[in-house]
Amino acid sequence: MASVLQKLITPLFTGTPEPPRNKVTVVGVGQVGMACAVSILLRELADELALVDVVEDKLKGEMMDLQHGSLFLKTPKIVADKDYSVTANSRIVVVTAGVRQQEGESRLNLVQRNVNIFKHIIPQIVRYSPDCIIIVVSNPVDVLTYVTWKLSGLPKHRVIGSGTNLDSARFRFLMADKLGIHSSSFNGWILGEHGDTSGEEFKNRYLIQEIICLSSYLALFCGCKVTNLFFNVQVM
Questions:
Q1: Any catalytic annotation for residue 194?
Q2: Which of 29, 61, 94, 232 falls between 20 and 30 A from 157, CA-CA?
Q3: With a threshold of 0.85, does the pTM exceed it?
Q4: How far apart are CA 157 and CA 137, in angstroms?
Q5: Which tens digits make up the pLDDT trace of 70-97?
Q6: Over the stretch 146-176, which tens digit does the pLDDT of each residue have?
Q7: Of 86, 103, 98, 92, which is closest to residue 29 (Cα–Cα)?
Q8: Which of 68, 120, 157, 194 is catalytic?
């Protein structure tokens, strides 16, 4: 005998749902990962968003926070799990997971610890989304992008590191501010690795440390710049 709920609610669709066309996965739900996730949602870049992390309570909380705000968003489906099967059929995977850099520690000192983490993450991503494009944000990003390419077996044009995009955006703002123009009217790039040796002629280290001290981390800025890479990915 049908329950009252079954009588009142009739399913509108009973067939097999089509796989998402623009599914995006964010691996790692720390400050940078969630900044990327929010930026993806606000810029309407995905028809499904998946989150993955090893800390289940935090992962569930971040997922629920985004789901409860879905009334104001156009992304219909937001899912999360520590099992990588939730990432299946992703078009783009953003990797922000890894050990966070400690005060006074160089990015290169993070290499071995984060390589060990990537040895678990990357094969799982490729297993469930063999046709995806991977964007690496974790530090040291230049080394880990190379490691990701090797571990994944993907063509080199499908493994992208965020590189010095952040440094370049900061450089453009500071130069434009000095010239009294909008940053979109000034073009310039910081070259080299994303770390202590990037653009050594441009000494912005004290400014960066001040921003980190005042705002805890450069998460929102990072999220915006990472999602800006999506527009380059679309034309590949």
A1: yes
A2: 29
A3: no
A4: 16
A5: 888 888 899 999 999 999 999 999 999 9
A6: 999 999 999 999 999 987 777 777 777 878 7
A7: 98
A8: 194
